Amino acid sequence: MDGANHTQVTEFIFLGFSRVLRGQAFLFLALLAIYLITLLGNCLILTLIVLDPQLHSPMYFFLGHLAFLDMCYSSITLPKILVNLRHQQETISYRECLAQIFFLMTCAGTECALLTIMAFDRYAAICKPLHYTCIMTKKVCVPLATACWLWGILNSAIHNFLTTNVSFCGANQIHHIFCDIPPLLKIACSDTYVNEMALHAATVFVGLIPFLLVLISYAYILLAILRIRSNMGRHKAFSTCAAHLVVVIIYFGTAILNYNRPSTGYSVEVDTLVSTLYCILTPMLNPLIYSLRNQDVKGALRRALGHHKKDNASPRTQPGVD
């Protein structure tokens, strides 16, 4: 399709916050606070992982990548939303829109793969404790993390290429708060069948299959935990997985709902709510979830603040677990 077909549209107008007129100042401050908390929380976790030797393990290596991804997620969408709210002009240029979609889809594909790898890491730590250090070596972890990023970039490149071939014929009002593929396809005037099929395929291969792999990993983990005789051992093993499992449920649930819901039957408010949970609130919640119940992170923070006390606790019974 000729690229000139879509050059009639040079910018898009977001309608997601169009009904919020009197409360835009409060909304601006709330989103700004969320953005700052997201950056601070994830940056703190990333810094602790880099600087504290006790966090130099596969589990925290992947958690560092997750923290960086969450900062990227927020930085892709929130700054533009904040600028638009500040100037009361909900617009974005065509090229900025495509760039936002590219980086957003890259992060989406990468995070799905990364959360799956993190589940495998927990499986190896709990179900194969004697072989854990041989399974999750640096030579294994680095290629796995690299593969996650490449998978995300490939996923994004396919969708971005297909999106550039969509025509809009002057329609430029998006019922959303940032550029994403589903709301963009709704206003297209050309055939979007291939784009929709690609989106459904990505939902299966990028979202659903990784989610099922995570569930299978946790099924084996649960069986292994139930075989542990001591209550303390069961609690310790479960606590190492609880945070990751909560993050997985929240992220995959909102992601699948965001990209695979029916094209009709949802209001602008519902679209905005789902997108806010998926791209704005989840990146803020992840560092809180991982730090509130994680003794390693709490200990690293105390050491970083100069309040380290001699650790008289018993040594770890499972590699990479705590």
Secondary structure layout plus pairing:
Layout: E1 11-14, H1 24-51, H2 58-87, E2 91-93, H3 94-127, H4 132-135, H5 138-164, E3 173-174, H6 181-186, H7 193-226, H8 231-259, H9 268-292, H10 295-304
Parallel strand pairs: 1-3
Antiparallel strand pairs: 1-2
Helix pairs in contact: 1-2, 1-9, 2-3, 2-9, 3-5, 3-7, 3-8, 5-7, 7-8, 8-9
Give the overall form: globular
Mean pLDDT: 82
Secondary structural class:
mainly alpha
Number of strands: 3
Placed side by side, the strands forming the largest sheet appear as 2-1-3
User: Class in CATH?
Assistant: Mainly Alpha
Q: Element order, helices and strands?
A: EHHEHHHEHHHHH
Radius of gyration: 22 Å
Summed up, the helix count is: 10
Task: Tell me about the largest β-sheet.
Answer: 3 strands, mixed
End-to-end Cα distance, whole Å, is 55 Å
Textual characterization of the structure:
The structure is a single chain. The protein contains 10 helices and 3 strands; from the N terminus they run E-H-H-E-H-H-H-E-H-H-H-H-H. By secondary structure, the protein is mostly helical. The protein has a single domain, classed as Rhopdopsin 7-helix transmembrane proteins. The radius of gyration is 22 Å and the shape is globular. The protein starts with 10 loop residues before the first strand and ends in an 18-residue tail after the last helix. Mean pLDDT is 82; it is low at 1-7 and 308-322.
